[in-house]
Each structure stands twice: as C-alpha cells, then as structure tokens.
Amino acid sequence: MTETTFTPRVFSGIQPSGDLHLGNYLGALKRFADAQDKGVQSIYCMVDLHAITVPQNPADLKRSTRELAAGFIASGVSPEKSILINQSQVPEHAQLAWIFNCVARMGWMGRMTQWKDKAGKNAEAASLGLFAYPALMAADILIYHATHVPVGEDQKQHLELTRDIAAKFNHDYGVDFFPITEPVIEGAATRVMSLRDGAKKMSKSDPSDASRINLTDDADTIAKKIRKAKTDPDALPSEVEGLKDRPEARNLVNIYAGLNDQTVEQVLADHGGQQFGTFKPALAELAVSKIAPISTEMARLMSDVTEIDRLLAHGAEQAREISAPILKKTYEIVGMVG
Ligand code: AMP
Ligand code: TRP
C-alpha cells in the first residue's frame, strides 16, 4: 500500500462545561491562535456532545457554549482565519463516531485514565457516552482528516487512542484513508498546576477558586491570586535543575514563560536570584496585561449572542464542506448503500 500524504490541517476542541482558566489558555487557546497564525488551515470546536457525557443543565450548557465561543475569539482565534464550530451543529462528528464505536475495543476504552477518574468507583452508574467519549473525540479529528492536534498534556492518551482507531480502521478495510494524527504538546505550559498545590493540575473542578485564574477574572483578582499563590522560601534559581523538587516555583516560572512566549531558561536568565517578593509582582503584571483584556473582550462579545450564533452557523457551513465528503467516502468503504 502506498503512503498517502495528507495536507496539514489542525483540529482541536474544548468542552463547554464551565469557566475557562489559565491552563486552558496556555495549554490550548493561546496555542490554537499561534497555529492559526502560521497559516495552516485550523478548525476549532466547542464539544457540546462531549459535555453531556455527564449531566448538564440545558440553559447552562447553552450559555457555556456561547461563552466558550467568546473565549476562543477573545484569545485570538479568528472566525475569519479559522473555522470555529459547535460540535452538534456538524452532524458528521456523531455519525463517524458510531462507526468508530464499532472499530474501538472495550479494552482500549477501559484503560483510559480520564474514564477511570470520571467514572470513579461507581462505573456501573456512568453513562455509556462517558465510556465511548474517546471514540467521539477520534471522530472529531478524523472527520476532517486533521493531521495535527494541539492540546495539553492530559489529552495525550486520548490522542494515542485516536491513532489506534485510525490504524485499525485502515487495516481492517485495507485502505489508507485516515491519517495517523500527531499530538502537538509543546511549550513551557502544557500542564499548568494549581496555584494552591503544585502537585495538582489547574482545573475548573477544583473547589478552591484561588487555585486557578479564570479568563473572566478582573485585573485585581488576577493580581491577588498570584500574590497569594503558594511558593517556597527560596530565591529563584538561575538554572532549570534548580527547580527540581520545587513544584510551586516551577509552575510560576512555567506560567511566566508561557505568557511571555519564552523558554524556562530565558525566564531564569532574567529572574534567577530574585525572591518571590520581586518575581510575583512581575508575574502579576504580566498576567494582568495578557489575561485582563481577554476577560473584557469576552464580556463584550457575550453582550451580543446573536452575533456569536451567526458566527457558529457560518463555521458549521464551512466545516460541512470538508466533513460531508469524508463521511460519504467512509460509508462507501464500510459498505453502506447510499
Ligand atoms: P478541558 O477544560 O479539560 O476540556 O480542557 C481543554 C483544553 O485545555 C485541553 O487541550 C486540555 O489539555 C487543556 N488544559 C486543561 N487544563 C490544563 C492545564 N491545567 N494545563 C494545561 N492545559 C490544560
Ligand atoms: N477531550 C478534550 C478535553 O477534555 C476535548 C476534545 C474533544 C478534543 N474532542 C477533541 C480535543 C478533539 C482535541 C481534539 O479537553
């Protein structure tokens, strides 16, 4: 079989299930805007079908989906340069997901750490959708033949499964139809940690609001959360090795590097030797200058939801021009009459 070369195309998604935070921004949104600005065709998605794998209040889901769209745009993802969509408005995602449900194996799904974490001890009571979640995620990506997927570190295992599904489909049907997608997990801040505990990921599900910076926080709140962030009593080292076993210090340096488009080495070259009494105000100033304008812009966009809905309808139309022919060809390969 000859190797097909696939045109580079970027796809990524975020769940509309609550407030966006600095981890989403540095691990995902900011990097989506960077990828788009490199000129590669990019498709970014609010994954509302993924959100309902756990119970959602319908009115909140609607609001969160629009707010996420505003978050994408305010973070620099342009609906003119990228295709911006809401998952359920492009039905081919769910249609391909069914095919992938029949390709993926129960054993593969059962090994996913996100499934184990979210289902917890009571897996019997979890939804079937939560178990099948990664097959829908593979469909999101492969319905566009996307080749590159920028995400945070926590999504690595799901992307490996996406590769397994593509490879098994290609193998079972003797085709070279789906690309083997590359995860793009890079930069200083692929795993932003809680501001209260350097061993825990910054997450919207942390009960303490002080543990994260929300993209909707105002300047004062951002500065205050950084001032109060947990640290240790030592000065910053001038070499990366000096951050070993100092998770809180490492996290703040990573955040600085991510926000300022620098490497950790560069940040330490500039700030090594400083006490946190000096470094934290510098970080607070940087974070306020980058994050506060996003929150202002999100609020502005949210004041006109009709415009957001119009942009999403337009995105869905553009997306379907790519997804519909790929689904048609998939059905042909599988043997559906049509
Ligand atoms: P979620 O909010 O879990 O749907 O995640 C949306 C995107 O943000 C995914 O690409 C995640 O990998 C990324 N992400 C979430 N939390 C973090 C974090 N603490 N650090 C870096 N990236 C994150
Ligand atoms: N599972 C991802 C998360 O929780 C969201 C997601 C759904 C996604 N489909 C995707 C990410 C496709 C990248 C590509 O963050």
UniProtKB/TrEMBL annotation:
Q: What EC identifiers does the entry list?
A: 6.1.1.2
Alphabetical UniProt keywords: Aminoacyl-tRNA synthetase, ATP-binding, Cytoplasm, Ligase, Nucleotide-binding, Protein biosynthesis
Matching entries from InterPro entries are given as:
aa-tRNA-synth_I_CS (IPR001412), aa-tRNA-synth_Ic (IPR002305), Rossmann-like_a/b/a_fold (IPR014729), Trp-tRNA-ligase (IPR002306), Trp-tRNA-ligase_bac-type (IPR024109), Trp-tRNA_synthetase (IPR050203)
Q: Does the keyword Lipid biosynthesis apply?
A: no
Q: Which GO terms describe its molecular function?
A: ATP binding; tryptophan-tRNA ligase activity
Major site of localization recorded for this protein = cytoplasm
Q: Which reaction(s) are listed as its catalytic activity?
A: tRNA(Trp) + L-tryptophan + ATP = L-tryptophyl-tRNA(Trp) + AMP + diphosphate + H(+)
Q: Where is this motif: 'KMSKS' region?
A: 201-205
Pfam families on file = tRNA-synt_1b
CDD domains cross-referenced by the UniProt entry: TrpRS_core
An example Gene Ontology cellular component term from the record? cytosol
Free-text function comment from the UniProt entry: Catalyzes the attachment of tryptophan to tRNA(Trp).
Its assembly, as annotated, is: Homodimer.
Could you tell me which PANTHER family the record lists for this protein? TRYPTOPHAN--TRNA LIGASE, MITOCHONDRIAL
Q: Which family does it belong to?
A: Belongs to the class-I aminoacyl-tRNA synthetase family.
Name assigned to this protein? Tryptophan--tRNA ligase
Tell me the classification of the organism that encodes this protein.
Bacteria, Pseudomonadati, Pseudomonadota, Alphaproteobacteria, Rhodobacterales
- Name of the gene this protein is made from: trpS
